[in-house]
Design goal:
- The complex is a heterotrimer of chains A (213), B (476) and C (251).
- By secondary structure, chain B is an alpha/beta fold.
- Chain B has three domains: 141 residues, Fumarate Reductase Iron-sulfur Protein, Chain B, domain 2, CATH 1.10.1060; 221 residues, 3-Layer(aba) Sandwich (Rossmann fold); 61 residues, no CATH class.
- Chain B is built from 23 helices and ten strands.
- In chain B, strands 1-10-7-4-2-3 form a six-stranded parallel sheet, sandwiched between helices. A four-stranded mixed sheet of chain B has the order 8-5-6-9, with helices on both faces.
- The model of chain B has no long low-confidence stretch (mean pLDDT 96).
- Chain C starts with 9 loop residues before the first strand and ends with a helix.
- Chain C has two domains: 115 residues, no CATH class; 111 residues, Rossmann fold (3-Layer(aba) Sandwich).
- The chains are: A alpha/beta (213), B alpha/beta (476), C alpha/beta (251).
- At the A-B interface, helix 1, helix 5, helix 6, strand 9 and strand 10 of A face helix 2, helix 3, helix 4, strand 1 and helix 8 of B.
- Strand 9 of chain A pairs antiparallel with strand 9 of chain B, so a sheet runs across the interface.
């Protein structure tokens, strides 16, 4: 198909420019929210999208897990990396901790059918849109935040940015993008049936954000 | 299809659509909601204008430098381990994709929402060759069950009532009890499709933005099916138009913001997925193989025209469609094209040819609502008018718009010549006015389609220039 | 493009073929309003049409010929006032493109730069002051799409009406939606146009107003013709006629 490539590029090269000189108006909002404003806006936006948000002290989230999840019928919790380590230390024994240590091929059925919830760490959050930024790693793979019906995201409140653009620039995303970067802004939803909003289509039915610190 | 036939077919579809009062009511309420939701996201008009100017500039810059950016994109993607293929048209794209699926021994394939895949009629092509492609976006899934095409580029099943959807689901999946409750229907679809995601051998998706700087494919969605499609199966094939590239990663946030706010009035969608690589060593999930098929299908030809290339800035938000007073009357299917509404009326005649579907340009009152809301400031009314001129031009160029001059009709040519002879001469026009005013009683009471809905206005008994003279106004 | 905001001593009046032939009273009212404000109004006798019907049908060569004739009727460098957003927009926004590369391009661009829709002129250049002498009444305003989307002058008509103390302006649902005229659109797609004007008439009537007032006779012909066919009582009127009626002592 290099023929197609040359044909297409050939047609494209007949006009346009060779210089990549940019003259693009600068961004609009130079807003800079205070720490508390950011937390509030982040929380508000997530709640508007039907996500659950809890403000906790740094070390308290394991206690929250212990207290809340059994009440919500969670028997098996998927976790990896640092969150898994913390949970191994102090998690209550009514919940089974499931690690994600095998490639998906070897346990797809179990992941899809027998995991009640997952908990993942995050890169941070975006206040203006109520977004949790998840950068999956070998220890905390991609499907953790997609397949289980409940996804619990641990967000460090020191790592909240005002806007997506600001976060991308401040954290030099262009130089260090992971295999798959995810912006998650609520539970899965659709309005395809007569424009009525419904939640939990294919992704998690519940997104629970634990805002720490 | 001859010029007359395409017009007849279009008129027939319009007639059918206008006769459907229920559909009109549905479209009315849906479009009102989409317009209101969008407005809520843009409280400051000046700020909105600035954002649109910025998005326009980002897209225009990318189009101006398209060949260089596509080469850079390809280089980066390949470095990242994503394989890149080029297709001049739908046939080539489908053949490529089919080959990839066959090589992988893929029998079951899931697809995320992709207008480009509709453009190339991918599902039919694969089905004819024994590969069933299952739509996973809820709206597209419903349409696939019904054997229908989308009537809107963002909300494809907008024309279907929940009763129709309930009936469809229950008929195809009788193990799920009939219900008109939206939550229940949603959960039923979730269960059905979940199995498919789990088992699929391959996932096909579109792309919203592709970034040359980093070799990244970006996808916008609310349901999670896009992520499922591009993460669970071992093979992911993305197919999209060559115009979707942007230069820098930082170009994405301003476009994303306008896309989601313009399309459905959301500050952002539930998921924004940025894919840069296939599964790496040590990673536990994600496809081992990721392919991108870059589709031309007439885009490079459109880009040759300095004015018409503005069309390629489109980020497929559907806002023009939502605000179109014609679309709300006839719905998406009346257009008979993959892309309906204002953007469709420009893109489709250029893609397919004015001889095939140029009639679309007549279904527009040039009200300008579309141009006012386009997030990348595509001057849609100006382009529609331009295509009208191309459709009847006598000057046909080899590299001109496809189907140039094909709608030029002798009767119309002579009508406008006659009009010009009268209105282009001060003397003849004054004579015409004299006749029109003095013989006003001879005005026919019926004038074709006009008088189906309105009374016919008669010329006044005295024209304005006579009245002005009588009232003592100077004429020099 | 804008001329200085100094009050001009004289202006041309560009009738528009529609107003000239079908609604001359509206045109005359516009001229009277300007004359009453102390500005000399010149009505070039040979004027005909701005060329828009052919231009919007794709016959740009014919449109150019007619526009060229029109251009020759307004030679002096004084404002051209037009009782129609659609025609004013054709001259001010589309003539530069239509005449691009032509020998008289400069003249066309010049005229484009000094052409104003009537309400725009009355507010911006004349700062017209109005005193309402009429009885209380309720009206609804239909701003033409050209006035709104092309010229961006929808609030001129509103500000003029706001000066009339006995006039209540009602607002219709979806007021920014096209009435379905679109010039040749209503001929080429009569049924879509018909459906649009039906919806518009419904929305206007639901306000309970007695009159619908607009900057554009095209819209008024469309809406008025539909109202009349349906036997509805809502009356169409051009803004110039309405303003003159409300403020003229002789009335």
């Amino acid at each position: 198909m290099s023929n197609a490539r040359e044909a297409v590029l050939g047609r494209l090269r007949t006009n346009g420019s060779d210089q990549l000189g940019r003259s693009i108006p600068s961004q609009v909002d130079d807003t800079s929210l205070g720490r508390e404003e950011k937390r509030q806006l982040f929380t508000q936006q997530l709640q508007a999208a039907h996500a659950e948000v809890h403000h906790l002290q740094d070390g308290d989230w394991v206690n929250w897990i212990n207290r809340e999840l059994p009440q919500r019928g969670v028997d098996r919790l998927l976790a990896g990396g640092a969150p898994a380590e913390a949970l191994e230390q102090g998690m209550v024994n009514t919940i089974e901790l499931q690690p994600y240590q095998q490639p998906i091929e070897s346990w797809k059925e179990a992941l899809f059918s027998h995991i009640d919830a997952s908990v993942t760490s995050t890169e941070g959050g975006i206040a203006s849109t109520g977004t949790v930024v998840v950068w999956p790693t070998p220890q905390e793979p991609r499907l953790m935040s997609l397949v289980p019906p409940i996804h619990i995201a641990l967000v460090d409140s020191e790592r909240l940015c005002d806007t997506f653009e600001q976060m991308m620039n401040a954290d030099q995303w262009a130089e260090r993008l992971p295999t798959n970067a995810l912006l998650i802004s609520g539970p899965s939803k659709t309005a395809d049936i007569q424009q009525v909003l419904a939640y939990g289509v294919h992704g998690p039915k519940q997104l629970i954000v634990l805002l720490l610190g | 299809m001859s010029a007359t036939n395409q017009s007849k077919a279009f008129q027939s579809r319009i007639g059918e659509a206008l006769g459907n009062q229920q559909a009109h009511t549905n479209f009315r309420s849906a479009m009102n909601m989409l317009m209101e939701n969008r407005l809520k996201q843009f409280p400051d008009q000046e700020e909105l204008l600035h954002k649109r100017q910025r998005a326009d500039a980002i897209r225009a810059h990318a189009l101006r430098n398209l060949p260089a950016l596509l080469e850079k994109l390809e280089q980066k993607l390949v470095e990242n381990g994503i394989q890149v293929h080029w297709a001049e048209n739908g046939e080539e794209a489908n053949a490529l994709i089919h080959q990839l699926l066959s090589q992988a021994g893929a029998r079951s394939v899931v697809k995320g929402k992709s207008m480009v895949s509709e453009e190339i009629d991918l599902n039919h092509y694969m089905e004819e060759r024994g590969i069933k492609v299952l739509e996973s976006d809820l709206g597209e899934f419903i349409l696939q069950l019904a054997g229908e095409t989308p009537s809107h580029i963002v909300m494809p099943a907008i024309h279907k009532s929940k009763q129709e959807i309930a009936e469809l689901l229950n008929r195809h999946f009788p193990e799920h009890p009939y219900s008109e409750d939206v939550d229940t229907l949603t959960q039923q679809a979730r269960q059905i499709l979940r199995d498919q995601f789990r088992q699929a051998d391959a996932g096909i998706s579109g792309v919203n933005f592709m970034v040359a700087e980093t070799g990244t494919l970006c996808l916008v969605e609310n349901e999670g099916n896009g992520r499922m499609t591009t993460t669970v199966p071992p093979l992911h094939i993305a197919v999209t138009g060559i115009e979707k590239v942007v230069e820098l990663l930082s170009d994405v946030p301003p476009l994303l913001e306008l896309l989601t706010k313009s399309a459905t009035g959301q500050p952002i969608t539930a998921y924004f997925n940025m894919i840069s690589r296939p599964r790496q060593t040590g990673e536990m999930d994600g496809p081992q193989e990721v392919h991108l098929v870059l589709l031309d299908n007439g885009r490079s030809h459109i880009r040759r025209d300095e004015e018409l290339l503005d069309t390629l800035r489109c980020i497929r938000c559907g806002s023009c469609i939502n605000h179109c007073p014609v679309y709300v009357q006839v719905g998406g299917h009346a257009y008979g094209t993959v892309y309906p509404g204002p953007i469709g009326s420009v893109l489709e005649p250029m893609r397919q040819g004015l001889d095939k579907i140029g009639a679309l340009t007549s279904a527009c009152s040039l009200c300008g609502a579309c141009g006012q809301v386009c997030p990348v400031q595509i001057p849609l009314p100006k382009l529609i008018n331009r295509l009208r001129a191309e459709a009847v031009t006598q000057q046909v160029e080899t590299q001109g718009v496809k189907g140039q001059g094909s709608l030029r009709k002798l009767l119309e040519v002579w009508t406008w010549k006659g009009w010009r002879l009268i209105f282009g001469s001060g003397l003849r026009y004054r004579l015409f006015k004299l006749l029109a005013t003095r013989l006003r009683r001879l005005t026919p009471p019926k004038m074709g389609g006009w008088s189906r809905y309105r009374t016919v206005a008669k010329p006044a008994s005295r024209s304005l220039d006579e009245m002005a003279a009588k009232a003592g106004f100077d004429h020099e | 493009m804008a001329m200085s905001n100094d009050r001009p001593s004289e202006v041309y009046f560009l009738a528009t073929c529609l107003t000239d032939l079908l609604y001359p009273r509206a045109g005359l009212a516009g001229m009277e309003l300007i004359r009453r404000a102390g500005v000399r109004v010149i009505y070039p006798k040979r004027q005909s049409c701005c060329g828009q019907p052919a231009y919007n049908s794709g016959y740009r060569d014919e449109a150019l010929k007619v526009a060229r004739h029109q251009l020759s009727c307004f030679p002096r460098n004084i404002p051209v006032v037009v009782p129609s957003g659609s025609c004013a927009g054709m001259v001010s926004h589309h003539w530069p493109e239509l005449f691009a590369g032509e020998p008289d391009e400069a003249e066309a661009v010049n005229m484009a730069g000094r052409t104003f829709e009537l309400t725009q002129f009355l507010v911006d250049q004349l700062d017209l002051q109005l005193e309402d002498l009429g009885e209380p009444t309720e009206i609804v305003v239909h701003t033409s799409c050209s006035s709104r989307n092309e010229l961006g002058i929808e609030e001129r008509i509103e500000s003029l009406l706001a000066q009339l103390s006995n006039v209540t302006v009602r607002e219709q649902a979806r007021k920014a939606e096209c009435c379905g005229f679109g010039g040749t659109f209503s001929i080429k797609q009569p049924d879509i146009s018909g459906a649009m004007v039906q919806d518009k008439c419904d929305a206007l009537e639901q306000t309970g107003a007695t009159r619908v007032v607009s900057q554009d006779c095209g819209c008024l012909m469309n809406i008025g013709g539909a109202l009349e066919k349906q036997g509805r009582t809502l009356q169409p009127q051009h803004i110039a006629e309405f303003l003159l009626e409300r403020t003229n002592v002789s009335n």
